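Sample A.
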Amino acid sequence: MRVLLIEDTTQLAGPVAQQLRDEHGHDVQRARDPLEARSLTGPFDVVVVDLLFEHLSLEFDRRRLGRRVRPTRDRLLVTGLTAVTDFLARPEPSGIVLWTSGEANRRLHLLYAEEELGIRAFCSKSSGTGKADVLNAAIAAAAAGRPHVDPVLSAYLPGSHGHPISRTIFREEKHRAIWRAVALGAHSREEIAELTGHPRRTIGNLMPELLAELLTLDPGIQAGKPLNEVVRYANRNWEFFLDDAVRRRFP
């Protein structure tokens, strides 16, 4: 099979790509990130996509911390979801494997990929020593249109849980604007109002609604003061709330 591996860590991508060639007979191409992947014509039978790319995250985070990003005007963070969206839109769609580590800040990306993009093949980078063998099983499943969830990631993917992102924290445009403003570093009503254009009073009135939606999506969240909990959650998951592909789908 023709496989495209989109991964920025050369020390990982190189050996795994070579093993996929030597041990499993795949024709493997590599791209450093989703932007480089756009220049590759394909077609590919399967695209293996990392979720977060260190050089893209660091560059964006410098702009974020420097308060140089406007949530509706500038391009936001490019992640693996950009690559997934790009390849699903091609005339000859590829099977997709999301290949990522199991850190908690990947959970919303994984949920979004399952709920909104229909991805069913998920593989962990930390699945023991036989990474290429484990990844190859996910590649075979994606090529055949079969679901495959690595046990390491299964806790993040409860399947059809009835409370998707689109009907909880992303249910309303005003709510999405607040999440993005907080993820950009606006932690007071005044700062959030300045970034969103909503009156300070409106921000205060909406905070209990945001917390209620968050608790529906993630019942394990501590139910403290609404603004404090929204700030804490947005800070922990800023890569998701400021994801460029997510913003394009949910402006």
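Sample B, a different protein:
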Amino acid sequence: MTTPFEPERRRPGLFSRLRASFLTGIVVIAPVSLTIWLIWSIMGWIDGFVLPLVPSRFNPEQYIGINLRGIGVIFFLVFTAFVGWVAKGLIGRSLIRFAESLVERMPVVRSIYSGVKQIAETIFAQSERNFEKACLIQYPRKGIWAIGFISTDARGEVADRAETMGKLISVFVPTTPNPTSGFLLFFPEEDVVELDMSIEDAAKLVISAGLVYPNAKDPTQPAKAA
């Protein structure tokens, strides 16, 4: 029941409904389309780089007359797996050590090779140790909280020379929206608040700038394991 003083509520017009439907469609289509486009583009880039190096008799295009996108990716994966298998053997390790000894004698090439190798090992090498848990720490000052990832306990000279009475914990504090960059900080154990959310959920929270919480229905509770 409305009173004479209450304004009459208007139903949204046709244009407003169409605009809302269009924006909803964009939200649904854009992530899928961008993902497909990105994968398709990367496959084309790898094909364009790898296929010219493959002998023509091994290229399916010579037999079926159709350029199948993704063939270069398959060749690349097989070749990379073969190189990795050889590198694990005695002969492969000897060849790698010999090649690295030659590179070490080249001033400019040595710096480039060392940097690229460190990046590759950091990104692709399988490590037995990963971030242990997500946590909250007060950073960059007291009263301001940030999400971090617990790495390991501080050891060696860092733990010995730090002016603290208790144990130090190394925490990686990621940046938004790129969580691969950030800061390595060392906090006293009592200043680190461990979270129940998983590493993946905490990363989503950082990437989304606080828009995506682990449990959308009730952010006060951790997300249930699938």
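Observation for Sample B: The chain has a mean pLDDT of 82.
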